[in-house]
Write a structure and sequence with these properties.
The protein is an alpha+beta fold and 319 residues long. The chain has two domains: 3-172, Peroxisomal Thiolase, Chain A, domain 1 (3-Layer(aba) Sandwich); 176-318, Thiolase/Chalcone synthase (Peroxisomal Thiolase, Chain A, domain 1), CATH 3.40.47. It has ten helices and 15 strands. It has helices at residues 20-24, 31-38, 52-67, 91-99, 115-128, 152-155, 211-232, 250-260, 271-274, 281-291, and strands at 3-12, 16-19, 42-45, 76-80, 106-109, 134-142, 160-170, 175-182, 190-191, 195-197, 200-202, 208-209, 240-245, 300-307, 311-318. The strands form five sheets. It has a five-stranded mixed β-sheet with strand order 1-7-6-4-5, with helices on both faces. The protein has a four-stranded mixed β-sheet with strand order 8-15-14-13, sandwiched between helices. The chain is globular, with a radius of gyration of 18 Å. The structure holds acetyl coenzyme *A. Acetyl coenzyme *A binds at residues 29, 33-34, 37-38, 112-113, 152-153, 156, 190, 209, 211-212, 214-215, 218, 248-249, 276, 278, 307-308.
């Protein structure tokens, strides 16, 4: 039986930090409102000359260094992003070129905040099918460019960043299972509906969101997907050493953990320092928890995400 295994992680956060206090000078909000409703204290904002592929490149280099893998060993690149450099070509192709890699398949996955889960599950399937040996999987986002900075309901929530992992063939898991779901009937609940049409922007070019609906849905499916992953593998929830959820709101994370009976000490959180970095939030959190030595060899780690679509999913890993 062939599996895939994570052999290196990397992350990159842009230099500029925007605190809640900075936001107090921009919209009618307060540090205490943002902290108490979301858990966010600050977020990183990309420089004007940084693109999603630039953030991805830096995170990829970190992952390659950690895995001791060179560019000629990478034979698949998948990038999860909602904020691509351009409509086409894909950010994965742009990243491939910046890395100096030739001829391997490279493509983007668009599943918004679940994007990294979808991308990792896809790369795992390529490896299990024997179609590639080593894959680079990246989540990269510059949400600061798609936010209406006059809308306090959304602009306080998001941040920019990138996270990357390298996975390779292994006889042992590695990635044990992945679980993907979508329900497109919720498409308008959380969306950026704008598009380019005949040389003009058609529709709203900024994120719109029914916050309460998203909140309730997220808590429901973040619980369900954990039950699904452990049941399929004949495990107990108590077997999970680390839960690494998408970082949208600390209250969503706490509610999920409480319903599952998982103590917060076993949940990796970065929302306070990063905000919601969409497809980058899970690989960034994984990178931090693997580098600081929290995650030990042999432990079960469960990644889970939910995003616009709605999309949701989980990847169970034996570290
Ligand atoms: N500062 C101060 N007040 C605010 C702010 C703000 N930034 N934003 C909203 N308010 C006000 C509202 O106007 C409202 O005022 P009112 O009572 O006078 O009408 C009040 O605060 C309460 O607003 P609610 O929307 O009810 O606040 P809630 O506690 O639900 O928190 C939040 C809002 C944080 C958006 C929450 O609903 C949430 O986190 N939802 C999930 C969002 C999410 O996860 N989105 C990303 C999903 S991932 C993806 O795919 C991109």
């Amino acid at each position: 039986m062939m599996y895939s295994k994570i052999i290196g992680t990397g992350g990159y956060l842009p230099e500029k930090i925007l605190t809640n206090h900075d936001l107090e000078n921009m919209v009618d909000t307060s540090d205490s409102w943002i902290r108490s409703r979301t858990g966010i204290e600050q977020r990183h904002i990309a420089a004007d000359n940084e693109l999603a592929s630039d953030l991805a490149l830096k995170a990829s280099h970190e992952a390659m260094k950690a895995a001791d893998v060179s560019t000629d060993e990478i034979n698949l690149i998948i990038v999860a992003t909602t904020t691509p450099d351009m409509i086409f070509p894909s950010t994965a192709c742009i990243l491939q070129n910046k890395l100096g890699i030739k001829n391997c398949p490279a493509f983007d996955v668009q599943a918004v905040c679940s994007g990294f889960i979808y991308a990792l599950a896809t790369a795992d399937m390529f490896i299990r099918a024997g179609r590639c040996r080593t894959a680079l999987v990246v989540g990269t986002e510059i949400y600061s460019r798609i936010l209406d900075w006059d809308d306090r309901g959304t602009c306080v929530l998001f941040g920019d960043g990138a996270g990357a992992v390298l996975i390779t063939q292994s006889n042992q898991p590695g990635i044990i299972s992945s679980h993907l779901h979508s329900d497109g009937s919720h498409a308008n609940t959380l969306a950026l509906s704008g598009n380019i049409c005949n040389g003009k922007i058609q529709g709203n070019p900024y994120i719109t969101m029914e916050g309460n609906t998203v909140f309730k849905f997220a808590v429901k499916v973040m619980e369900e997907i954990v039950h699904e992953a452990v049941a399929e593998n004949n495990l107990q929830i108590s077997d999970i050493s680390w839960l690494i959820p998408h970082q949208a709101n600390i209250r969503i994370i706490q509610s999920t953990a409480k319903k599952l009976g998982i103590p917060m000490e076993k949940v990796v959180t970065t929302i306070n320092k990063h905000g919601n970095t969409s497809a980058a939030s899970i690989p960034l959190a994984l990178d931090i928890a693997s580098r600081d030595g929290r995650i030990k060899s042999g432990q079960y780690v469960l990644l889970e995400g939910v995003g616009s679509g709605f999309t949701w999913g989980a990847v169970l890993i034996r570290w």
